[in-house]
Amino acid sequence: MNEQKAIRLCLKHRDPAGFEVLVVQNRRRAFFHARALLGNSEDAADACQDAFVRAFAAMPRLEKLDRFYPWFNRILRNVCLNMLARKKTRADHLRNSLVQTTSHHSDASPSDLMELKETQEEVWRVLDQLSVEHREILTLKYVHRFSYGEIAETLGIPKGTVMSRLYSARYAFRNKHEQIHTVCKSRIDHGP
């Protein structure tokens, strides 16, 4: 069943089978987006479950829906931002890599895999210290590989704003990365 048929079933008949298709098609993307916003897998899974429940309840009230994910993402984003507001603190850092690297690099040596894992952890440590807005847009662009147009549609902002936010987010990432390296180098040079 394609997305349009699944949407029609949900809008007209509140069909759980149609909604299940939408969940299956979008759960991975939703999880990674929520994880980028919240900073850990457990909260991301909870947020996704809550957002899908809310979406299922809200769909019959819609007259029309062309694409599911941009609409759903607004619900997911609000759930995540509400969780952040309630908690007031996020997890200290992301321990697990976003993507299971070993399954994609089976021909790599163990030292290559270890280096790749360390690089991913370093990237997530830096991302974790950025604002939610910067983390979100960098994840959409570089993890989901969304185009500027897809990011604009997903976040409900103009394309020019996407480009501006990406520029700011890249700049913030670069500065935070350099700051972390400076602190690490100083600790190595001068001891703990």
What do you see in this structure?
The chain is elongated and about 65 Å long. The chain is mostly helical. The protein has two domains: 85 residues, Rna Polymerase Sigma Factor, Chain: A, CATH 1.10.1740; 90 residues, Orthogonal Bundle (Arc Repressor Mutant, subunit A), CATH 1.10.10.10. The longest helix has 32 residues. It starts with a helix and ends with a helix. About 9% of the residues have low confidence. Helix 2 crosses helix 4 and helix 2 crosses helix 7.
Please provide a brief summary of the model.
With about 190 residues, this protein is mainly alpha-helical. The protein is built from 9 helices and no strands.
